[in-house]
Amino acid sequence: MDPFRQQIANMGIDRAGGGFNPYAAGPKRYGITGRANATSGPISPEGMQGYDDRDMQARAKRTALLNRMQATQKGQYMNPAALRGM
Length: 86
Fold this sequence. Notes:
Blueprint (H helix, E strand, L loop, with lengths): L2 H9 L33 H29 L6 H5 L2
């Protein structure tokens, strides 16, 4: 066992979730060695598909919200674009 992990275990601290805290100040550190990058190494095309899917869903949501916002700004509250966000 890694001595650092053993030291943490001796103190009774649980590192569930990798110790990530979104509210922490300063640069984020990942892994037991405290590296600055979240992932390291090449990503396969299959792994990149998840990023593409996420980006496509984010674009669709953004487009729907922008369409709804534009329809309501014109005062057309009963417009299908305002009601459905399309």
